[in-house]
Amino acid sequence: MDSNPASKKSSVMADINMTPMVDVMLVLLIIFMLITPALMSGFTAQMPTGKNLKERPDDENRTTLGIDLAGNYYLNKEPIPEDRVVELLTAEMARHPEDAVLFVKADKGLKYVELREAMEHARKAGFRVMAAVTDPIKGDDEDEGK
Question: I need a surface site. Which of 13, 77, 81, 136 has the fewest CB within 10 A?
Answer without folding.
Answer: 13
